[in-house]
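User: Show me a protein chain along with its predicted structure.
Assistant: Here is one chain, sequence first, then structure tokens.
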Amino acid sequence: MYKVLIIDDEEPLREAIRILGDWEKLGVERVLEATDGKIGLSMLEEHKIDLVIVDMKMPEMNGVELLRVIEREYQDLLTIVISGYNDFEYTRQAIHAKVVDYLLKPVNRRDLNEALLKAINVLEAKRKMKSEHISKNITLNLSLPKLKEKVYISLIERSFKNQMNETFLPLIGADDAMNRFATVVLRVLNLEAVSVGRFHNDVDLLRFAIANVIDEIASDHFHCFSFASPKEEREMIAVITMKGGYREDMVYRSVHQMKRVSATLAKLFGIVALVGIGDLCDEALDIADSYDNAKASINGVDLLKLNGSAVTNEAAQSFHKDNLSISSRIPMIRSALENGSIQHAKGIMGDLAKSWKSSGGFSVWEADRTARELVVLLNDIALELKVSPERLLIGGDHALRMKGISADYTDFGQYESLLNRILEYYVEEIRKALTVNRPFDVGDIKSFIDNHYFEDIKISVFSDKYFLSREYLMKLFKQEFGTGIHEYVQKVRMDKAKELLDDRSLKIQDISEMLGYKDKNYFSKAFRNYYSYSPTEYRENRMNG
């Protein structure tokens, strides 16, 4: 006899299941109920339950969360999932394969009892399997997917031991001489947006859903086994096993099926992905080379031409030129960071981005390398400027996400925005560190103006940098130097203008640009307003004097 637990917050649904189930015929002696996942877990501790029927949407703890706990703590417990129509596709793609069956609301008698019978048959079979030999086989079957994953990872990492071949290679079809293999790498470009918008910020659940979609493309001569990369959060790995046919035909089928995967992921979840397909190999031991090919295919995609998802099996050349490296701009970026000028820093980055655009191409690999290089260089600057080490971005995309920075980018424009988000973060952290470690001195503003009079100086630059109000800064400056900030900027520019006008080799147009005026007429007007005569008249007076 068996015990069944129904976990659902809707009493009418629980009552319907009680009425519709052929409990006595199925050998169920007791049917228990719980109104949410937390209560359900406490009942699992109190009673020896054989089968759980769980609704996916519940308060306190939803079905996905509950199933994770059951998988971890009650590995022999069977489950049947109930889902609403709007969530059924999501449920089918995302829930663990150990679920016995899925029921769509409203539950009807036939579907319910068919699912119950399926579960009871599994329970009956387990009770008959008492010998140690059969128990070992059950354990192997339950853990087979994880075991296959470990075998594939060891092959990809080239850590597979040959003496294990006889035991484990048959699990992945390597004992069949007719089989050929290819490795696929799928990179999710908008992982964070999809995770937050569709999977309640659960990256693991998102990756499980992707694996299910990939594996569903299997056919008689085409099998896929996919899993999350152990090193790259955005990366999924799939190993294709094919039997028979010409090599060219197999390559065509691989590309065709991966395009189906890409389209399905976009339709179901809004995923934008790069899919790289490695070379076909006759031996499972060559899967690592195929993986390297697949990675190279993705890394070679030109970000300047990328528009949505892409599937490729060809590696492109690198476009990057050393003179376009971000390290050459770091001294200027450092100066902007120290002065708290995010606009100046973004301007430097914008000029560099224009250079990349005009260089003939900018690959995904170069984009990744540049972003990593930027973070490393900014970390060095931040440490020198006394930013606390725990505030640094160390640890890839995960570190950025923990600091509220999305590392998603699906085209070059979004990539440029990512670099600017990183700059903004460091500007803020460095500004805070300088404020804490160095007392405010209004003379710093005067020094900045003396050295940067040719820039477009705004009081907000100083108020943001020192965390002081605009009015307070203006008051302090006037008390200290007897003039307002704007008036002092004008004085420095006009004093410098006279100095430059004394050099007769300089044209007035050149002088206006050196002082930060974009228009010669505007400079002449400002000079006349300040001195009551024009720059030309000043020069003539100096000559006659």
